[in-house]
Design a protein that fits this description.
Number of helices: 16
Distance between the termini: 38 Å
Helix content: 25-40%
Bound molecules: zinc ion
Number of strands: 17
Radius of gyration: 24 Å
CATH superfamily of the largest domain: Metal-dependent hydrolases
Largest sheet: 9 strands, parallel
CATH topology of the largest domain: TIM Barrel
Shape: globular
Structural class: alpha/beta
Protein backbone atom coordinates (compact mmCIF):
# COMPACT_ATOMS: atom_id res chain seq x y z
CA UNK A 1 0.00 0.00 0.00
CA UNK A 2 1.39 3.38 -0.99
CA UNK A 3 1.44 6.35 1.34
CA UNK A 4 -2.01 7.99 1.13
CA UNK A 5 -0.43 11.44 1.48
CA UNK A 6 -1.16 14.31 3.83
CA UNK A 7 -4.48 15.74 4.90
CA UNK A 8 -4.21 19.50 4.81
CA UNK A 9 -6.75 22.23 5.18
CA UNK A 10 -5.78 25.65 3.93
CA UNK A 11 -9.16 27.35 4.43
CA UNK A 12 -10.61 26.47 1.01
CA UNK A 13 -9.24 23.19 -0.31
CA UNK A 14 -8.81 19.93 1.45
CA UNK A 15 -6.66 17.04 0.50
CA UNK A 16 -5.63 18.01 -3.02
CA UNK A 17 -2.72 15.61 -2.77
CA UNK A 18 -4.59 12.89 -0.90
CA UNK A 19 -4.75 9.46 -2.56
CA UNK A 20 -8.23 8.15 -1.72
CA UNK A 21 -7.81 4.94 -3.74
CA UNK A 22 -5.19 3.68 -1.30
CA UNK A 23 -7.76 3.36 1.50
CA UNK A 24 -10.41 0.82 2.39
CA UNK A 25 -14.07 1.92 2.46
CA UNK A 26 -14.09 2.20 6.29
CA UNK A 27 -10.94 4.25 6.25
CA UNK A 28 -12.40 6.59 3.64
CA UNK A 29 -15.48 7.13 5.84
CA UNK A 30 -13.27 7.81 8.85
CA UNK A 31 -11.03 10.23 6.96
CA UNK A 32 -13.97 12.13 5.46
CA UNK A 33 -15.57 12.45 8.90
CA UNK A 34 -12.41 13.87 10.38
CA UNK A 35 -12.00 16.26 7.46
CA UNK A 36 -15.58 17.51 7.99
CA UNK A 37 -14.86 17.97 11.70
CA UNK A 38 -11.57 19.81 11.11
CA UNK A 39 -13.22 22.01 8.49
CA UNK A 40 -16.15 22.92 10.71
CA UNK A 41 -13.87 23.56 13.71
CA UNK A 42 -11.63 25.84 11.67
CA UNK A 43 -14.55 27.66 10.12
CA UNK A 44 -16.26 28.19 13.47
CA UNK A 45 -13.01 29.55 14.86
CA UNK A 46 -12.96 32.19 12.17
CA UNK A 47 -16.56 33.29 12.68
CA UNK A 48 -18.12 35.84 14.95
CA UNK A 49 -20.63 34.45 17.43
CA UNK A 50 -24.08 35.86 18.01
CA UNK A 51 -25.88 34.93 21.22
CA UNK A 52 -29.57 35.74 21.68
CA UNK A 53 -31.35 35.85 25.03
CA UNK A 54 -32.55 38.11 27.86
CA UNK A 55 -29.34 40.08 28.46
CA UNK A 56 -28.76 41.34 32.01
CA UNK A 57 -25.53 43.25 32.51
CA UNK A 58 -24.31 44.85 35.76
CA UNK A 59 -22.41 48.11 35.93
CA UNK A 60 -21.27 50.74 38.40
CA UNK A 61 -21.90 54.45 37.90
CA UNK A 62 -19.27 57.11 38.63
CA UNK A 63 -20.26 57.13 42.33
CA UNK A 64 -19.74 53.36 42.53
CA UNK A 65 -23.45 52.54 42.73
CA UNK A 66 -24.23 49.24 41.03
CA UNK A 67 -27.17 48.89 38.64
CA UNK A 68 -28.53 46.39 36.11
CA UNK A 69 -28.94 47.07 32.43
CA UNK A 70 -31.24 44.68 30.59
CA UNK A 71 -32.34 43.90 27.06
CA UNK A 72 -35.25 41.45 27.11
CA UNK A 73 -34.90 40.71 23.41
CA UNK A 74 -31.15 40.98 23.65
CA UNK A 75 -28.05 40.07 21.72
CA UNK A 76 -24.38 39.62 22.48
CA UNK A 77 -21.83 39.54 19.70
CA UNK A 78 -18.45 37.93 20.27
CA UNK A 79 -15.70 39.00 17.90
CA UNK A 80 -12.87 36.90 16.51
CA UNK A 81 -10.74 38.16 19.40
CA UNK A 82 -13.14 36.36 21.85
CA UNK A 83 -14.28 39.69 23.28
CA UNK A 84 -17.71 41.28 23.44
CA UNK A 85 -18.17 43.43 20.34
CA UNK A 86 -21.87 44.24 20.79
CA UNK A 87 -24.37 44.16 23.65
CA UNK A 88 -27.86 45.49 23.11
CA UNK A 89 -31.21 44.85 21.50
CA UNK A 90 -31.48 41.98 19.07
CA UNK A 91 -30.66 43.08 15.53
CA UNK A 92 -31.66 41.45 12.27
CA UNK A 93 -30.78 37.78 12.03
CA UNK A 94 -27.16 37.07 11.27
CA UNK A 95 -26.44 34.75 8.37
CA UNK A 96 -24.83 31.49 9.43
CA UNK A 97 -22.17 31.83 6.71
CA UNK A 98 -20.69 34.79 8.55
CA UNK A 99 -21.43 33.94 12.17
CA UNK A 100 -22.36 31.13 14.54
CA UNK A 101 -25.73 31.72 16.16
CA UNK A 102 -26.74 30.57 19.64
CA UNK A 103 -30.37 31.29 20.37
CA UNK A 104 -31.16 30.87 24.06
CA UNK A 105 -34.68 32.33 23.61
CA UNK A 106 -35.72 34.03 26.88
CA UNK A 107 -32.96 32.58 29.07
CA UNK A 108 -30.94 35.10 31.07
CA UNK A 109 -27.45 35.96 29.78
CA UNK A 110 -25.47 37.35 32.73
CA UNK A 111 -21.78 38.06 33.40
CA UNK A 112 -20.12 35.08 35.07
CA UNK A 113 -18.77 35.01 38.63
CA UNK A 114 -15.39 35.74 40.12
CA UNK A 115 -14.47 34.13 43.46
CA UNK A 116 -11.40 35.85 44.88
CA UNK A 117 -10.68 33.63 47.90
CA UNK A 118 -11.06 29.86 48.21
CA UNK A 119 -8.99 26.83 49.18
CA UNK A 120 -8.65 23.94 46.73
CA UNK A 121 -7.85 21.18 49.30
CA UNK A 122 -10.68 22.29 51.58
CA UNK A 123 -13.40 21.65 49.00
CA UNK A 124 -13.86 18.14 50.35
CA UNK A 125 -14.30 19.33 53.95
CA UNK A 126 -17.21 21.74 53.59
CA UNK A 127 -19.44 21.47 56.64
CA UNK A 128 -16.83 20.25 59.14
CA UNK A 129 -18.47 20.82 62.47
CA UNK A 130 -18.06 22.77 65.61
CA UNK A 131 -14.87 24.84 65.77
CA UNK A 132 -13.79 28.45 65.57
CA UNK A 133 -11.00 29.49 63.20
CA UNK A 134 -7.90 28.28 65.05
CA UNK A 135 -9.48 25.05 66.29
CA UNK A 136 -10.90 24.39 62.82
CA UNK A 137 -7.49 24.72 61.18
CA UNK A 138 -5.95 22.20 63.57
CA UNK A 139 -8.79 19.72 63.73
CA UNK A 140 -9.85 19.60 60.07
CA UNK A 141 -7.84 21.71 57.64
CA UNK A 142 -4.27 20.59 58.26
CA UNK A 143 -5.01 16.82 58.27
CA UNK A 144 -6.96 17.12 54.99
CA UNK A 145 -4.26 19.22 53.34
CA UNK A 146 -1.67 16.51 54.05
CA UNK A 147 -3.51 14.21 51.63
CA UNK A 148 -2.49 16.53 48.80
CA UNK A 149 1.11 15.36 48.89
CA UNK A 150 -0.22 12.48 46.76
CA UNK A 151 -0.05 13.71 43.16
CA UNK A 152 -2.66 11.33 41.73
CA UNK A 153 -5.09 12.30 44.49
CA UNK A 154 -4.47 16.01 43.89
CA UNK A 155 -4.91 15.61 40.12
CA UNK A 156 -8.28 13.89 40.40
CA UNK A 157 -9.51 16.42 42.98
CA UNK A 158 -8.28 19.39 40.90
CA UNK A 159 -10.22 18.33 37.82
CA UNK A 160 -13.40 17.91 39.85
CA UNK A 161 -12.86 21.23 41.67
CA UNK A 162 -12.37 23.26 38.48
CA UNK A 163 -15.31 21.55 36.78
CA UNK A 164 -17.59 22.29 39.73
CA UNK A 165 -16.57 25.96 39.78
CA UNK A 166 -17.34 26.42 36.09
CA UNK A 167 -20.63 24.51 36.43
CA UNK A 168 -21.98 27.11 38.87
CA UNK A 169 -20.96 30.01 36.64
CA UNK A 170 -17.60 30.90 38.24
CA UNK A 171 -15.06 31.61 35.54
CA UNK A 172 -12.31 33.37 37.48
CA UNK A 173 -10.93 32.69 40.94
CA UNK A 174 -8.03 33.29 43.33
CA UNK A 175 -7.21 29.91 44.82
CA UNK A 176 -5.01 28.67 47.66
CA UNK A 177 -3.53 25.28 46.84
CA UNK A 178 -1.97 23.09 49.55
CA UNK A 179 1.64 23.62 50.62
CA UNK A 180 2.84 21.09 48.03
CA UNK A 181 4.50 22.02 44.76
CA UNK A 182 3.05 19.03 42.86
CA UNK A 183 -0.57 19.66 43.91
CA UNK A 184 -0.22 23.34 42.98
CA UNK A 185 1.11 22.37 39.56
CA UNK A 186 -1.78 19.89 39.19
CA UNK A 187 -4.28 22.59 40.09
CA UNK A 188 -2.81 25.01 37.53
CA UNK A 189 -2.89 22.25 34.94
CA UNK A 190 -6.59 21.59 35.68
CA UNK A 191 -7.39 25.35 35.51
CA UNK A 192 -5.61 25.48 32.16
CA UNK A 193 -7.52 22.55 30.67
CA UNK A 194 -10.83 23.67 32.17
CA UNK A 195 -10.43 27.22 30.83
CA UNK A 196 -10.74 28.78 34.31
CA UNK A 197 -9.10 32.17 34.77
CA UNK A 198 -7.16 31.76 37.99
CA UNK A 199 -4.68 33.29 40.36
CA UNK A 200 -3.13 30.31 42.16
CA UNK A 201 -0.68 30.01 45.02
CA UNK A 202 1.22 27.27 46.81
CA UNK A 203 0.67 27.87 50.53
CA UNK A 204 3.77 28.87 52.51
CA UNK A 205 4.06 28.06 56.24
CA UNK A 206 7.07 27.38 58.40
CA UNK A 207 5.63 27.26 61.92
CA UNK A 208 2.50 26.49 63.99
CA UNK A 209 1.27 23.77 61.67
CA UNK A 210 2.01 20.01 61.32
CA UNK A 211 5.56 19.23 60.30
CA UNK A 212 4.52 17.62 57.00
CA UNK A 213 3.03 20.89 55.77
CA UNK A 214 5.91 23.18 56.68
CA UNK A 215 8.37 24.78 54.29
CA UNK A 216 11.57 23.69 56.06
CA UNK A 217 14.01 25.28 53.65
CA UNK A 218 12.97 28.72 52.40
CA UNK A 219 14.92 28.16 49.18
CA UNK A 220 12.43 25.39 48.33
CA UNK A 221 9.52 27.83 48.34
CA UNK A 222 11.52 30.30 46.28
CA UNK A 223 12.48 27.57 43.79
CA UNK A 224 8.93 26.22 43.54
CA UNK A 225 7.40 29.66 43.10
CA UNK A 226 9.88 30.59 40.36
CA UNK A 227 9.31 27.33 38.53
CA UNK A 228 5.52 27.66 38.63
CA UNK A 229 5.74 31.33 37.66
CA UNK A 230 7.90 30.56 34.63
CA UNK A 231 5.66 27.70 33.56
CA UNK A 232 2.20 29.17 34.04
CA UNK A 233 2.11 32.91 34.67
CA UNK A 234 1.03 34.93 31.65
CA UNK A 235 0.24 38.63 31.92
CA UNK A 236 -3.00 39.38 30.11
CA UNK A 237 -3.55 35.62 29.96
CA UNK A 238 -5.76 33.30 31.99
CA UNK A 239 -3.34 32.11 34.68
CA UNK A 240 -1.33 33.99 37.27
CA UNK A 241 0.75 33.03 40.29
CA UNK A 242 0.24 34.29 43.83
CA UNK A 243 2.75 34.33 46.67
CA UNK A 244 0.64 32.71 49.39
CA UNK A 245 1.75 32.88 53.04
CA UNK A 246 -1.26 31.29 54.81
CA UNK A 247 -1.34 34.04 57.44
CA UNK A 248 1.11 35.83 59.71
CA UNK A 249 0.99 33.32 62.63
CA UNK A 250 2.23 30.43 60.46
CA UNK A 251 5.10 32.43 58.95
CA UNK A 252 8.40 33.56 60.46
CA UNK A 253 9.87 36.97 59.71
CA UNK A 254 12.27 35.31 57.26
CA UNK A 255 9.45 33.66 55.32
CA UNK A 256 7.40 36.88 55.16
CA UNK A 257 10.53 38.68 54.00
CA UNK A 258 11.01 36.10 51.22
CA UNK A 259 7.34 36.52 50.20
CA UNK A 260 7.89 40.27 49.84
CA UNK A 261 10.96 39.68 47.68
CA UNK A 262 9.12 37.20 45.44
CA UNK A 263 6.26 39.64 45.01
CA UNK A 264 8.64 42.44 44.07
CA UNK A 265 10.88 40.28 41.89
CA UNK A 266 8.11 38.79 39.74
CA UNK A 267 6.10 41.61 38.16
CA UNK A 268 2.44 40.70 37.75
CA UNK A 269 2.51 38.19 40.63
CA UNK A 270 -0.20 38.42 43.28
CA UNK A 271 -0.09 38.12 47.05
CA UNK A 272 -2.88 36.37 48.93
CA UNK A 273 -3.16 35.80 52.65
CA UNK A 274 -5.59 36.10 55.57
CA UNK A 275 -6.13 39.17 57.72
CA UNK A 276 -8.15 40.15 60.81
CA UNK A 277 -10.62 37.28 60.72
CA UNK A 278 -11.08 36.80 64.47
CA UNK A 279 -10.07 38.61 67.64
CA UNK A 280 -8.16 35.55 68.94
CA UNK A 281 -6.09 35.57 65.74
CA UNK A 282 -5.36 39.30 66.12
CA UNK A 283 -4.22 38.77 69.72
CA UNK A 284 -1.97 35.90 68.59
CA UNK A 285 -0.42 38.07 65.86
CA UNK A 286 0.23 40.81 68.43
CA UNK A 287 2.07 38.33 70.67
CA UNK A 288 4.12 36.90 67.78
CA UNK A 289 5.03 40.29 66.30
CA UNK A 290 5.24 42.55 69.38
CA UNK A 291 6.98 45.35 67.51
CA UNK A 292 4.10 45.76 65.02
CA UNK A 293 1.60 48.52 65.74
CA UNK A 294 -1.28 46.38 64.42
CA UNK A 295 -1.99 43.33 62.25
CA UNK A 296 -1.74 45.13 58.90
CA UNK A 297 1.64 46.53 59.92
CA UNK A 298 3.08 42.98 59.87
CA UNK A 299 2.24 42.67 56.17
CA UNK A 300 3.28 46.26 55.42
CA UNK A 301 6.67 45.67 57.04
CA UNK A 302 7.43 43.01 54.44
CA UNK A 303 5.96 44.94 51.47
CA UNK A 304 3.03 42.57 51.10
CA UNK A 305 0.35 45.23 50.56
CA UNK A 306 -0.51 46.79 47.22
CA UNK A 307 -2.68 46.68 44.16
CA UNK A 308 -1.96 42.99 43.53
CA UNK A 309 -2.58 41.94 47.13
CA UNK A 310 -5.77 40.26 48.36
CA UNK A 311 -6.32 39.89 52.09
CA UNK A 312 -9.01 37.43 53.13
CA UNK A 313 -11.72 38.64 55.56
CA UNK A 314 -10.75 42.03 57.05
CA UNK A 315 -13.51 41.85 59.67
CA UNK A 316 -11.91 43.34 62.78
CA UNK A 317 -10.13 46.30 61.20
CA UNK A 318 -9.11 49.55 62.89
CA UNK A 319 -9.70 52.99 61.39
CA UNK A 320 -6.02 53.37 60.71
CA UNK A 321 -5.85 49.98 58.97
CA UNK A 322 -8.83 50.98 56.81
CA UNK A 323 -7.03 54.13 55.73
CA UNK A 324 -3.87 52.22 54.86
CA UNK A 325 -5.80 49.56 52.91
CA UNK A 326 -7.20 52.40 50.84
CA UNK A 327 -3.84 54.13 50.38
CA UNK A 328 -2.11 50.97 49.18
CA UNK A 329 -5.15 49.86 47.06
CA UNK A 330 -4.95 46.47 48.80
CA UNK A 331 -8.11 44.43 48.17
CA UNK A 332 -10.23 42.56 50.71
CA UNK A 333 -11.90 39.22 49.97
CA UNK A 334 -15.23 39.29 51.79
CA UNK A 335 -16.33 35.78 52.76
CA UNK A 336 -19.72 36.02 54.55
CA UNK A 337 -20.58 32.32 54.36
CA UNK A 338 -17.32 31.34 56.06
CA UNK A 339 -17.58 34.18 58.58
CA UNK A 340 -21.05 33.06 59.65
CA UNK A 341 -20.06 29.39 59.72
CA UNK A 342 -17.04 29.90 62.00
CA UNK A 343 -18.75 32.69 63.97
CA UNK A 344 -15.89 35.04 63.09
CA UNK A 345 -17.93 38.24 62.75
CA UNK A 346 -19.33 40.42 59.97
CA UNK A 347 -17.26 42.66 57.71
CA UNK A 348 -18.43 46.26 57.69
CA UNK A 349 -19.51 46.57 54.04
CA UNK A 350 -20.82 50.13 54.38
CA UNK A 351 -17.63 51.41 55.96
CA UNK A 352 -15.43 49.57 53.44
CA UNK A 353 -17.37 51.22 50.61
CA UNK A 354 -17.24 54.67 52.28
CA UNK A 355 -13.49 54.32 52.75
CA UNK A 356 -13.17 53.40 49.06
CA UNK A 357 -11.52 50.07 49.83
CA UNK A 358 -11.55 47.57 46.98
CA UNK A 359 -13.35 44.35 47.88
CA UNK A 360 -15.33 41.53 46.32
CA UNK A 361 -17.30 38.52 47.49
CA UNK A 362 -15.71 35.08 47.87
CA UNK A 363 -16.73 31.62 49.02
CA UNK A 364 -13.70 30.78 51.23
CA UNK A 365 -14.32 27.09 50.65
CA UNK A 366 -14.17 25.00 52.89
CA UNK A 367 -15.22 27.22 55.84
CA UNK A 368 -17.65 28.74 53.36
CA UNK A 369 -20.48 26.28 52.92
CA UNK A 370 -21.15 26.65 49.20
CA UNK A 371 -19.06 26.92 46.04
CA UNK A 372 -21.87 28.86 44.40
CA UNK A 373 -21.79 32.67 44.44
CA UNK A 374 -25.62 32.90 44.52
CA UNK A 375 -25.48 31.35 48.01
CA UNK A 376 -22.69 33.72 49.02
CA UNK A 377 -24.80 36.70 47.91
CA UNK A 378 -27.58 35.43 50.17
CA UNK A 379 -25.24 35.17 53.16
CA UNK A 380 -23.87 38.65 52.46
CA UNK A 381 -27.37 40.10 52.33
CA UNK A 382 -28.45 38.48 55.60
CA UNK A 383 -25.30 39.32 57.53
CA UNK A 384 -25.30 42.95 56.37
CA UNK A 385 -28.96 43.18 57.43
CA UNK A 386 -27.76 42.40 60.96
CA UNK A 387 -25.43 45.40 60.63
CA UNK A 388 -28.42 47.58 59.68
CA UNK A 389 -27.33 47.81 56.04
CA UNK A 390 -29.60 46.73 53.17
CA UNK A 391 -27.78 45.66 50.02
CA UNK A 392 -29.41 45.76 46.60
CA UNK A 393 -29.39 42.84 44.17
CA UNK A 394 -27.12 44.88 41.88
CA UNK A 395 -24.67 45.55 44.78
CA UNK A 396 -24.50 41.84 45.47
CA UNK A 397 -24.22 40.72 41.88
CA UNK A 398 -21.51 43.30 41.04
CA UNK A 399 -19.50 42.20 44.10
CA UNK A 400 -19.75 38.58 42.89
CA UNK A 401 -18.80 39.22 39.29
CA UNK A 402 -17.25 42.37 37.80
CA UNK A 403 -15.65 43.64 41.05
CA UNK A 404 -13.70 40.43 41.58
CA UNK A 405 -12.73 40.14 37.91
CA UNK A 406 -11.37 43.68 38.03
CA UNK A 407 -9.28 42.88 41.11
CA UNK A 408 -7.81 39.73 39.52
CA UNK A 409 -7.45 40.93 35.91
CA UNK A 410 -7.25 44.75 35.93
CA UNK A 411 -5.34 44.71 32.64
CA UNK A 412 -8.51 43.59 30.81
CA UNK A 413 -9.94 47.07 31.46
CA UNK A 414 -13.46 46.13 30.30
CA UNK A 415 -15.75 43.83 32.29
CA UNK A 416 -19.25 42.38 32.19
CA UNK A 417 -20.77 42.99 28.76
CA UNK A 418 -18.87 46.21 27.98
CA UNK A 419 -17.47 46.20 24.47
CA UNK A 420 -13.94 44.83 24.71
CA UNK A 421 -14.66 42.64 27.76
CA UNK A 422 -13.71 38.95 27.70
CA UNK A 423 -16.79 36.98 26.65
CA UNK A 424 -17.27 35.17 29.98
CA UNK A 425 -20.93 34.69 30.88
CA UNK A 426 -23.60 32.30 32.12
CA UNK A 427 -26.92 31.32 30.57
CA UNK A 428 -29.72 30.72 33.08
CA UNK A 429 -32.94 29.11 31.95
CA UNK A 430 -35.79 30.86 33.74
CA UNK A 431 -38.23 28.19 32.58
CA UNK A 432 -36.50 25.68 34.84
CA UNK A 433 -37.28 27.82 37.89
CA UNK A 434 -40.98 28.28 38.64
CA UNK A 435 -40.40 31.19 41.05
CA UNK A 436 -38.31 33.08 38.53
CA UNK A 437 -40.64 32.38 35.65
CA UNK A 438 -43.57 33.74 37.68
CA UNK A 439 -41.66 36.87 38.61
CA UNK A 440 -40.67 37.51 35.02
CA UNK A 441 -44.27 36.84 33.98
CA UNK A 442 -45.52 39.47 36.46
CA UNK A 443 -43.20 41.98 34.80
CA UNK A 444 -41.35 42.70 38.02
CA UNK A 445 -38.30 44.96 37.76
CA UNK A 446 -35.02 43.24 36.94
CA UNK A 447 -33.79 44.13 40.46
CA UNK A 448 -36.69 42.19 42.00
CA UNK A 449 -36.18 39.27 39.61
CA UNK A 450 -32.45 38.93 40.33
CA UNK A 451 -33.01 39.37 44.06
CA UNK A 452 -35.49 36.47 43.86
CA UNK A 453 -32.93 34.45 41.93
CA UNK A 454 -30.48 34.72 44.86
CA UNK A 455 -32.85 32.61 46.93
CA UNK A 456 -34.13 30.28 44.24
CA UNK A 457 -31.17 29.48 41.93
CA UNK A 458 -30.69 25.80 41.14
CA UNK A 459 -27.91 24.04 39.25
CA UNK A 460 -30.40 22.71 36.70
CA UNK A 461 -31.04 26.29 35.52
CA UNK A 462 -27.51 26.62 34.12
CA UNK A 463 -27.88 25.97 30.39
CA UNK A 464 -24.35 27.03 29.50
CA UNK A 465 -21.24 28.81 30.73
CA UNK A 466 -19.03 30.61 28.22
CA UNK A 467 -15.37 31.50 28.74
CA UNK A 468 -13.61 33.57 26.09
CA UNK A 469 -16.67 33.04 23.89
CA UNK A 470 -16.41 29.23 23.99
CA UNK A 471 -18.93 26.99 25.74
CA UNK A 472 -17.14 25.35 28.68
CA UNK A 473 -20.22 23.91 30.41
CA UNK A 474 -23.43 22.79 28.77
CA UNK A 475 -26.26 20.38 29.58
CA UNK A 476 -24.80 19.40 32.93
CA UNK A 477 -21.31 18.66 31.59
CA UNK A 478 -17.98 20.44 31.36
CA UNK A 479 -16.32 20.58 27.97
ZN1 LIG B 1 -9.38 31.31 53.64
Amino acid sequence: MTDPGLIRYDGSNIANNFHWSCLSYDAVVKVSRSITRIKSEMESKSKRKIVYGHVVDVKRDKHGTAFFKEFRQGELEIGLDHKISYCGLRRTDCQSEVCDVYDFKDSLLMPSFSDIHLHFPQYEMIGSHGEDLLGWLNRYTFPIEMKYSDLKYAQSKAKQFVGDLVSVGTTSAAIYSSSHFESTNALLDACNSGGLRAVVGQVAMNRHAPDALLTKDLHDYEKHFSELFRKWHVDDGRLKLAVTPRFAPTCSDDLLNLCGQLLKGNPGAFLQTHFAETQAEIDWVQSLFPKSRDYLDVYETYDLCGVNSILGHGIHVTKSEMERLNQTRTAIAHCPSSNLFLGSGVMNWKQMREQNIRFALSTDIGAGTSICMWDIMGDAYKSQKLMGHTLTAADLFAASSIDGAEILFPEYQSFGFDVGARADFQVLNARKNRFLEERLGRNESIDEVIFGLIWSWTQSMVDAVFIDGDIRFESGKCK
